C-alpha cells in the first residue's frame, strides 16, 4: 500500500506543478524549493490527493505548513490521516 500511496502523491505533484516529471521527485525533495509548488498548485495537489486516495480527506485542523516540506512529510501526513502508522 505504501508504494501505491507514494505513486499517487507523485502523480498528484506532476499533475499540479508545471514542467515536473516523476523522475525529479525523491523522498527528500523539498516541495517548494526543489519542485516549485506554490499556494495555488498546492490546492490542486491536495484536491488531487482527496480524489485519488480512498479514505483521505484534508483536515483543516491538522494540516500544517511543515507537512509540505518534503515528499516524505506529505506521505506521513496522508498516512496519519488514514489512521495508518507510517512505516
UniProtKB/TrEMBL annotation:
Pfam families for the chain: PP-binding
PROSITE patterns xrefs: CARRIER
Domain Carrier: 4-82
Protein name per its UniProtKB record: Acyl carrier protein
Origin species: Aquimarina hainanensis
Amino acid at each position: 500500500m505504501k508504494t501505491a500511496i507514494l505513486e499517487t502523491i507523485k502523480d498528484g505533484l506532476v499533475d499540479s506543478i508545471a514542467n515536473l516529471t516523476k523522475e525529479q521527485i525523491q523522498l527528500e525533495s523539498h516541495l517548494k524549493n526543489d519542485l516549485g509548488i506554490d499556494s495555488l498548485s498546492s490546492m490542486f495537489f491536495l484536491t488531487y490527493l482527496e480524489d485519488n486516495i480512498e479514505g483521505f480527506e484534508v483536515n483543516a485542523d491538522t494540516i500544517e505548513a511543515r507537512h509540505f516540506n518534503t515528499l516524505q512529510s506529505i506521505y506521513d501526513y496522508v498516512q496519519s490521516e488514514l489512521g495508518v502508522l507510517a512505516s
